[in-house]
Specification:
11 strands, about 55% strand
């Protein structure tokens, strides 16, 4: 059984920063791509940033130059450093990972709320 557990969400003022973490645990053989998605009320879930097993990154245009995705390969953990936060960044943020365990599958975390408000 593979689990993704997120942490680091919360309430922050516009212009502030937050760092999200997501760790994968279980009988894992290998973790391929990892990423962060977000979903605001009334909107579809959208990709925020992703990082491959080789370290290549991809960002949504709306977060480029403000957010940075990184990972710790030894700990099967992915991070999202969010700077210069805006009210429109308010959403539930979900971690996603392509994991090879007993079988290969794509797993999701439970989500963590990020609220940007004064």
């Amino acid at each position: 059984q593979v689990q993704l557990v997120e942490s680091g969400g919360g309430l922050v003022q516009p212009g502030g920063s937050l760092r999200l973490s997501c760790g994968a645990s279980g009988n894992i053989l290998r973790v391929n791509d990892m990423g962060w998605y977000r979903q605001a009320p009334g909107n579809q879930r959208e990709l925020v940033a992703s990082i491959t097993s080789g370290g290549s990154t991809n960002y949504a245009d709306s977060v480029k130059d403000r957010f940075t995705i990184s990972r710790n390969y030894a700990k099967n953990t992915v991070y999202l450093q969010m700077n210069s936060l805006k009210p429109e960044d308010t959403a539930v943020y979900y971690c996603n990972a392509d994991v090879v365990a007993a079988a290969r599958g794509v797993y999701w975390g439970q989500g963590t709320q990020v609220t940007v408000s004064s």
